[in-house]
Amino acid sequence: MENIIEYRNVGKSYNGKPIVENFNLEIEDGSFISMIGSSGSGKTTLLKMINGLIEPDRGNIFIRGKKVKDYDLIALRRRIGYAIQGNGLFTHMNVEENIGFVPGLEGKSKSEINAQVDKMLELVDLPLDIKKRNVELLSGGQQQRVGIARAYANEPSILLMDEPFGAVDAITRYQLQKDIMKIHRQTGCTIIFITHDILEALKISDKILVLDKGKIEQFGTPADILEDPETEFVSKLVEMAKYNMQIWQGDI
Q1: Judging by beta carbons within 10 Å of its beta carbon (0-12, 13-18, 19+), is residue 113 exposed, middle or buried?
Q2: 12 falls in which pLDDT band (50, 70, 90)?
Q3: Which of 24, 58, 116, 230 sits a CA distance of 20 to 30 A from 246?
Q4: Predicted structure pTM score
């Protein structure tokens, strides 16, 4: 399968402190990658390098073989979905206006935008009669679904998600996990998903990227991570996951 994203010898420092050093990674088109690791391990930095919100000090990031820095970054960001914790919605707009924002910037007609809004609402399991409601009047789960719908409204080939479910309750989080897995299954877009929850990563991902102090501890399938942890750091994550699974199953 073709690589859609590639990091080559990427380095980034803040105030003289290295965050990532000599980072190399290839991500296949259509994959679902979860990034997990300690705070300050470089997850968000690596994510934002893909859409050019952060520029590396050294090395390059490629999208479909072309350096990110060689793209028109405004146009690139409109073609890459971006969802964050707390949804990041425009609170002065209603649901329809939020979801239709980027298609509007792309010059789509009103009828095209209306059709796309309906399509996105259906994709995230929200009723069409919610379109005219102000987003501040929605529940947390509904807001997060609208945030996902807005991020995917231009039907990007890449969807970046920075702890998008971190601020919702456990039941809503479970439903949102099902939603994003459905979106991946139905659309085939490449998803890069940051989480602090190893069980979430194991559940939703094709592959998991485990990071610590800006370095790759392991990159593999959920089965690879569970059955063959390569470092002590990964082993501790796996122990935590297995312990939590035992609690839920009533074995402890």
Answers
A1: buried
A2: very high
A3: 230
A4: 0.91
